[in-house]
Each structure stands twice: as structure tokens, then as C-alpha cells.
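May I ask you for just one protein sequence along with its C-alpha cells in two labelled lines?

_____
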Amino acid sequence: MNNPIKVALCGLGTVGSAVFRLINDKSELFKRRFGAEIKIVAVSARDKSKERDICLNDVAWFDDGIKMARESDANVVVELVGGSEGVALEVCRAALSTGKDIVTANKALLAVHGFDLAKQADEGSRSIGYEAAVAGGIPLIKALREGLVCNEVQSLYGILNGTSNFILTEMRNKGLDFETVLKDAQMLGYAEADPEFDINGVDAGHKLALLTALAFETKPDFSSMSVEGISNISELDIRFADELGYRIKLLGIARRGPEGTQQSVRPCMIPKELPMANVDGVFNAIAFQGDDTGPVFLEGRGAGAGPTASAVIADLSDLARGLRLPTFGVPIKELKLGNPASEDTAVGRFYVRLMVLDRPGVFADVAAILREQDVSMEAILQRTRAPGAPVPVVMTTHEVNQLAIKKAIDQFSSLDTVLEEPRMIKIENLGL
């Protein structure tokens, strides 16, 4: 039997309590499978008096998580506080400085401070496990760090936020607007009271930064990423997408090419027949393209107490087996700068929707702008209107430089016949 894994657990919210229960309820299973006992020796949370469905009698309580990380007799600290700064960061720094390993579900922390923490871990021969930080119960980190270790990953894409995916799914299935579905998601517990990080793409961006770093052997680089959320997607756009043979998904995409690494999070239209188009509700999915494996597609629940706690245990099991891998797949000295490439240089197809006054000369003005920017239309749709109502005009383009279509959008906005901000959504065939 290997030496026991003694855990100091920082944070006893939904996930923290689930981790506590799993470790206690399945201790015998872990002994059989990992060859070592996993036990919680210390905990820390904001309110000791809070009612919790767990028994804390046999563990040390610390009001201060940072003190716990320094002074407890644990050999691994599980950080489940969240946030990129403050307690979460200091707990991790304190744990590493006193020779403890870290397991965390905190994607924001690692997206912002991952390189510095990885350097500290590397220098102290410690480990940072973060399977729970990306897509909950889907073993994405293991897949990249171990399963695809012999592959050069050239590109990856995925649905990385369950809240946004649920909202887009409900808008499509029920014909409801964004605000209505968001309220429903909050009532069901799929969206936070403050859902900004989910709906504006930041949560997905943090996760993408970690996956890109691991896949491409680069420093995490969230700050240079192009991020767009779903709050501007209308039920009208979803209907037009369906008519054109597409579904709208919030995708995180990373590609590397001769000009550098492109990372983006934004709503995309993807063909209905693709597996990614049929990942609905709160589910997540990710696809990689390995040079030896070819395409790899993984799908599962991306959040929730059970899947996230399970991912935390997976990292603890590695420690129980004596497995400590570099945080981002290679020693810290081998990590490269990502050399971020502007998306404006990329070529692709686009969906454009204008709400216009139905009067002579409108199409001539639109056509003149497209001609000026060298944008070629693939298809155009126009719907009838009620008297005096604006008319939706939908266009899809052939492949065009992204900067050119952005310039055309700016010019459309200046027309007095265009009544709303034009909508532009990239069409992704996901031919990795």
C-alpha cells in the first residue's frame, strides 16, 4: 500500500461537499483501485456554522484557508474557492511553497496565473491537477496530457460552457427569446444569479486558454483571446440558421498556423449533420485533431457537483499512484509563447442579417458596399413584412477575409435604411 493521500479541502460549497462525501463514502474503492488511502484531514470555508450534509467531526477546521495550506499536515490541497485572485491564488501559492500538491477546479485562476503557478510547482517538484477545471466529468486534460501524448495537436474546438449551450438549445426548441430563457436557466440552477461570465464567453475563454496551452505547449494566453458571448443572438437568427441548415453554438476554437495561434470564443453556425451541432442542453463537447489519431470527439456533462467532484478524485488518484506530470504537458522551460495571430487575417464564410426599411434603393446600397469590400454573396433571404415593419434581409457569403466583412458591417451600420445593428455570425464547417 502506498502512502496515504492527506487532503486539505478549501471550500465547502456544492462541489466541495460532494468531494468530501465521495472521499468518505468510497474510501474502500479507492484503496483497491489506487493502492493508497485518500482521507480528508483539514477543511476551510467561510462559515463554520452553516448547515451541511457532511460530518466534520474528525477533521481539523481552519477559518483561514491560507493558514490551512501552510500549517495542516496534508500533502495535497484541493482548492474549490474559485476566482482568479484573492484567497484562491494565495492558497495555491502557500500550498506549493510548503511542498504540497494542488488539485483545483479553478479555470479562471489558471487562465490568468497558470504559468507562474506551474513554474512554482515545477521548481518544487510538485503537481497541479486541474481535470475539474475544464468540462467537469469529461476527461479532457487526461486525454491531452496522456492519451494524445504522441500527437501534435493542430486544432481543437468545443462547446465549453453548459449554461450558454442550454440557453441556445431552449431558444431553438421553444422559440423563446434570450432574456426569457436566461431567467428559466436561473430558476433551474443552470445559470448563476450573475451569469455574465457564462453568457459573455469569459468562462469558455478561461477553459480554452488551458486547453490551448496543453495542446500547443504554450503559455496560457487568455488576454489576447477574441471573446464574444451569446446575449446578442436572437430567436430570429436561430430560425434563419435552421432554415439555412445550421445550428448556432458558442464555440471555443484554437488553431495554429504559419502566422501563429488563433484563439476565439464566439457564436458560430455549424452544419446540422455534425456531431457538435447535436450536443444540446447543459452538455459539453470537445474535438481534437491529432496528427496520428485523426479526429477525437468527447462529450459529457460539463458541470454539476457529481461530475466535477469525480474529476477532482481523478487528480487525487494520480497522486495516490505517484503520478506527477508537468502542468501543461512539458517542463516549464519548454513552454513557448503562443504568438497570437489576429483573426482579421483569417478567411471564412459568414452569416449577415440586416433589419432594413423596405424601400427602393436598399439592395443597391448593400450591393455597392459588398462590391467595395470584395465580398461575394452565396445566398440571400428576404421575408415579407407587416405594413411599416422592418424587413429582415439575410445573406451568407463565400469565403472572405474577416477584416473585409467587418468593414462591410461598419458601412451597413451607417446606412439610414438599416434600423438595427447588423448581426454577423461566422459559419464554421469544422473541417479540422
About this structure: Residues 185 and 327 are 34 Å apart (CA to CA). The first strand starts at residue 5 and ends at 10. The two ends are 45 Å apart (CA to CA). The domain at 5-133 is CATH 3.40.50.720 (Rossmann fold).
